[in-house]
Design a protein that fits this description.
78 residues, 4 helices, mainly alpha, globular, 62% helix
């Protein structure tokens, strides 16, 4: 999985194949692995290694949340 995550072309191909099987899986895979995993990989420390391993193995699922002070839930207005 690390090989796929570190190569944008391989990730795109892998994601396309997954999306053929079930379209929502491609979106979930992208959110889980690019937004969550790559954030931990780029900003995390050794303490976060277990989080990355669990994401790689599919034991944990990530999510994306957008918050901005003074905007409430008006994401379009940010």
């Amino acid at each position: 999985m690390r090989d796929i995550l570190s190569n944008a072309i391989k990730f795109g191909i892998f994601n396309r194949v997954i999306s053929i099987y079930k379209e929502d899986c491609g979106v979930k895979l992208t959110v889980n692995l690019t937004l969550m995993y790559k954030t931990i990989d780029n900003l995390g420390t050794e303490e976060h290694t277990d989080f990355k391993r669990k994401l790689e193995m599919g034991e944990d699922i990530g999510c994306f949340a957008l918050t901005e002070l003074a905007h409430g839930s008006n994401v379009r207005g940010i």
